[in-house]
Automatic annotation (TrEMBL):
It comes from the Eukaryota. It is found in: Membrane. InterPro entries: Rer1. The lineage of its organism: Eukaryota, Viridiplantae, Streptophyta, Embryophyta, Tracheophyta. GO terms for cellular component: endoplasmic reticulum; Golgi membrane. This is Protein RER1. Its main location: membrane. Keywords: Membrane, Transmembrane, Transmembrane helix. The chain crosses the membrane at residues 38-57, 63-84, 117-135, 141-158.
Length: 195
């Protein structure tokens, strides 16, 4: 009996080794894409366009598309939200958003980093695309109703997120490097006194 178990384990060892090597190779190339954000997003946009063409061509899989839209909306909320929500965690030891103009500048730290956001969307689009090849996922529905549901859900969710941004005075995007302008204003005020 024990020899059968040993044979099964020795047969599984090459498969496990191959799976481990394939995962390491995938992780290596995934890590190499990290600094190339524009190319990553262009690739994801192309994949999404191919998925949309597939759904349009087949004229089905609207439930899959609706689920994909809900999932992406959920990811977007995590991407736009701060790591430490000031509404929930008032007394945190971690980085907090500045609440006054005199507070020290702290960069916006996302709950869902950009790379994980991109990776989750890309993986979801690939899974949804693969699901379009199985007819059991093609549930007949009236797609305009799903589209209306999604638009209303998107509008309500974004309204709530924007109100949260306004209430706690943060912008989830930073453009360029933050510059200190304290000396410039002091120099201009001293220059006006010299006149």
């Amino acid at each position: 009996m024990e020899s059968v178990g040993a044979e099964g384990a020795s047969a599984a060892a090459p498969l496990n080794q191959w799976r481990h090597d394939a995962w390491k190779l995938f992780q290596f190339y995934l890590d190499k894409t990290t600094p190339h954000a524009v190319y990553r997003w262009v690739g994801t946009a192309i994949l999404t366009f191919i998925y949309a063409l597939r759904v349009f061509y087949v004229q089905g899989f609207y439930i899959i598309t609706y689920g994909l839209g809900i999932y992406i909306l959920n990811l977007l909320i995590g991407f736009l939200s701060p790591l430490v929500d000031p509404e929930v965690d008032h007394h945190s030891d971690g980085p907090m958003l500045p609440t006054k103009g005199s507070d020290e500048f702290k960069p916006f730290i996302r709950r869902l980093p950009e790379f994980k956001f991109w990776y989750a969307i890309t993986k979801a689009v690939c899974i949804a695309f693969a699901m379009t090849f199985f007819s059991m996922f093609d549930v007949p529905v009236f797609w305009p109703i799903l589209l209306c549901y999604w638009v209303v859900l998107f509008a309500l969710t974004m309204k709530r997120q924007i109100m949260h941004m306004i209430k706690y005075k943060y912008i989830p995007f930073s453009v360029g490097k933050q510059k200190y302008s304290g000396k410039k204003s002091a120099a201009s005020s001293s220059g006006s006194r010299a006149d």
